Amino acid sequence: MTTEERVEKLETGLNQERRINRWLLIGLCLIVGGGFSFSFVQTKSAEATDPGAKIIRAKAFIVEDEQGKNRAVMTVGKDGTGIFLYDEQGKPGAGMSIGKDGTWIGLNDKQGKRRAFISVAKDGPGIDLYDEQGKRRAVMAVVKRGPAISLHDDRGGTRAFISVAKDGPGIDLNDDQGKTRASMAIGKDGYGINLYDDQGKTRAAMAVGKNGPGIELYDDREEARAIMAVVKEGPAICLYDTRGKAIWMAQ
């Protein structure tokens, strides 16, 4: 399975993140553009189970501090329920939403930039971590294929990807162009490491299987040109020409 396919599956497991901006806009509209001057809106008549208890019903609720600044907003809409908390400067600090597609919690720093995002969607739970520039640098998720972790550079490119599938764990390392340059996997039949050139072609492979360890070197067409192995019969080396024909062998 290629890195692109693994990342695509991971992104699917974290698709709830795309909805955070919409919820934040809803919360901001209630604060900035809604024109509310009450602590709650659209209130229905109070109901009481006894003379000393009352129930307040509303579609939105705003909590203000002593300076009249909004510090908490709770909304209920077609997409679900959202709660948003703001600091003394009015910057969003935390948000939580429960909707048809899942649940998420977002945490911001003092600058109002997102630093952590936790979601539970149909495909499974996920956690995103962001740097001080608001760029995503680490993702951890558990989807149908299994758990996975991806690490990103400051440009958003995936540089390392760790996953555990049914066949076993694997690690991919990418260059600054996002191309996989090294991969390591452990499967039922053995262990292996592959090295790739800047075109994504396999140039070297090392594996330990049931018959023993081996190393293969490939040309730019991914044709094996040299093989060294240690099997039950003993060590062996074989060199091949461009047509794949053995031209030298030692055993």
Based on helices, strands and strand pairing, what is the structural class? mainly beta
CATH class: Alpha Beta
Run of helices and strands? HHEEEEEEEEEEEEEEEEEEE
Largest sheet: 19 strands, antiparallel
- Portion of residues in helices? under 10%
The CATH topology annotation reads as Outer Surface Protein A, domain 3
Mean pLDDT over all positions: 83
How many angstroms does the end-to-end distance come to? 35 Å
Number of helices: 2
Described by its quaternary structure, the protein is: single chain
Q: Taking Cα atoms only, what radius of gyration do you get, to the nearest Å?
A: 28 Å
CATH architectural type: Alpha-Beta Complex
What this model shows, in words?
This protein is mainly beta. It has one domain: Outer Surface Protein A, domain 3 (Alpha-Beta Complex), CATH 3.90.930. Helix content is 10%, strand content 53%. It has helices at residues 3-13, 20-33; strands at residues 40-41, 60-64, 70-77, 80-86, 92-99, 102-108, 114-121, 124-130, 136-143, 146-152, 158-165, 168-174, 180-187, 190-196, 202-209, 212-218, 224-231, 234-240, 246-250. The chain has a 19-stranded antiparallel sheet, covered by helices on one side. A hairpin with a 5-residue loop joins strand 2 and strand 3 (70-77).
